[in-house]
Inverse folding.
């Protein structure tokens, strides 16, 4: 969802950077992109283990994630990623099932899907942070999506912008397209297991009919 459907990752990276800084912890804006797709708790624990040599308590996790969500929501509403709506219409016309697999647990974004992409997604065909135990890069979120959609890995295509998401899709045995909508080197996405790399959602939309999937 973030970085694929919505151009929201700059806001997420800034919010993560600022909230960690306020707690005396270091998480750069670019590193936030490397953690994209993890659950908030997992991201917090990685920083705590690195900086403090311990896991965060449940209370600390809830406090920091709440503060991060508040900071994120001070930004303007994230716009649709250019090309995303047009691509979804092409996919829908082909009779394919559209699903969202996100590490987000922020209802503010989940509730915006229907407004921004009317008729494209259904709650019962979504996998969020509330549904999974492990989260990306574990394949669990995508394996759960296959189960919810009643489809096999060979019948699915993953579109991801984050290294951890690409890794999760690859581990689930699904053909994974990486769209490099952030500041990371594209090679990072290929090294994570992407079968195909494109520079943007618009590029994916423009070449969709010509892809050999």
């Amino acid at each position: 969802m973030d970085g694929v459907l919505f151009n929201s990752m700059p806001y997420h990276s800034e919010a993560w950077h600022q909230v960690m800084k306020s707690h005396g912890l270091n998480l750069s804006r670019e590193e936030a992109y490397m953690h994209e797709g993890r659950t908030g708790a997992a991201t917090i624990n990685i920083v705590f283990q690195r900086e403090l040599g311990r896991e965060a308590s449940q209370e600390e996790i809830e406090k920091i994630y709440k503060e991060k969500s508040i900071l994120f929501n001070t930004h303007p509403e994230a716009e649709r990623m250019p090309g995303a709506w047009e691509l979804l219409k092409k996919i829908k016309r082909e009779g394919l099932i559209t699903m969202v697999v996100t590490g987000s647990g922020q209802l503010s974004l989940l509730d915006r899907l229907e407004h921004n992409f009317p008729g494209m997604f259904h709650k019962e065909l979504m996998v969020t942070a509330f549904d999974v135990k492990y989260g990306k890069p574990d394949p669990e979120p995508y394996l759960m999506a296959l189960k919810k959609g009643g489809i096999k890995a060979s019948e699915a295509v993953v579109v991801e912008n984050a290294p951890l998401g690409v890794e999760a899709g690859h581990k689930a045995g699904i053909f994974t397209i990486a769209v490099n909508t952030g500041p990371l080197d594209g090679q990072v996405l290929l090294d994570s297991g992407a079968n195909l790399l494109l520079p943007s959602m618009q590029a994916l939309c423009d070449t969709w009919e010509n892809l050999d999937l």
